[in-house]
Write a structure and sequence with these properties.
About 75% of the residues lie in helices and about 0% in strands. It has about 450 residues and is mostly helical. It has a single domain, classed as Up-down Bundle (Amino acid/polyamine transporter I), CATH 1.20.1740. The longest helix is centred in the middle third of the chain and has 38 residues, at about 220-260. It is globular. It starts with 8 loop residues before the first helix and ends in a 13-residue tail after the last helix.
Length: about 450
Amino acid sequence: MSIKAKLTTFDATMIVVSLIIGIGIFRTPAMVAAAARTPTLFYAAWALGGLISFIGALTFAEIGGRFAKPGGYYKVVAENYSSGLAFMLNWTNVVILNGAGAAAVALIGAEYLTPILFPAAAAGRATIQATAVVLILVLLAINYLGIKTGAWAQNVLSILKVGMIGLLTAAAFLSKKAPAGPSALPLDRPWILALGVSFIYVFYAYGGYQNTINFGADVRDAKRNVPRAIFFGILIVLACYLTINVAYVKTLGVPGIAAAKLVAAETARVTFGETGRLVVSLAIFLSAMGFLNVTLMQIPRVYYSMAEDRTLPAVFQKVNPKTQTQAFGLLFLGAIILVSIFLLGTFENIVNYVMFLDTMTLAIVSSSIFILRRKARRSGEAYTGYRIPLYPFLPLLFVAFMLLISVNVLVTQTREALYGAIFFAAGFPVFLLMRRVSRRETPPTPVPDEPER
């Protein structure tokens, strides 16, 4: 069953916004502030990280235009490098990066919601985990209804989260309250190392735009509209991130940000009072829902691509002709997230665990732009879509920076990075097993698409 293009440019732009703005901007500034220690380094980390991420977004805009296929994040590596490498990267992506990342977002969304649901009681870990499970189950039900239902929910949640970030930022700028105490913390390491550690958490918050290419078969006129969505989406995110971090510093100061576990809620409390803190906590919870919803929308498309390449069983390729939902793939992903909620530790540990693999994968997938260009040049393809400026300098800069961040994680969080590397290597025997299983399967009989109504 083929996938029909049902999403508009606006749908895709809102998908980009929610792929990036999950919970990171509401939580990672505390981790960045603890590493940066001073306002100058704090702002530098977010500004430089934003610039590199913008270059990365431009790189993936061209990849998305040249390679408009379902599950493009897997398939572009499979077709331009090898199926084995693509499987190993997505084996980690599927089981660790997206499962753990979504679990982390669900847990933090639950942390913001539980004080509203249970104001008289201290929210323990079991309560937070139970709330996160309910959140995942609700979103699974929404996405089971269809890709357009998921996109409609996505648009509402994305607009809401951008509006709430704007409201919080405006209130902080208008507030006359200033942070008490010193404006900076004493540096505990050379400034260049402090900036390097800050980048680890900054890129966690900025990541996600690359997964837009997984919707290559879902977006109408994808060769034109996927690049547009990535471009406009990343600009919206940059505006939100840079302004809200200025608001955090103005309201709390760098020491206050570093000490605040839930920095956005603390900023709202200082600005609006206790009522404002609860309102913003609810809004951030809804923002977490947006990120989780878009994760449930796009990861099954990777499963589709892997099944098409015969590195996953054919059942992952089945698409409901009316809803365009991959029921088995959706439920499989939901199970991974639910298990991750109970097996993985705190948000900070999850960030350290996934960043080594995430940046390595980004470097490899983004480098496919060089192969796509070379193939087009050799074949004489008349490509008229988006082209990244200053090629090949900007893509090379992005790839080099991602590799540098990977090395930084390896040096500063060695144990977590090595665990990730071991899991990556373990994907190769699984790939061989999946290929053997797939060869024994009888290919599914194609079902003719139903006509549009």
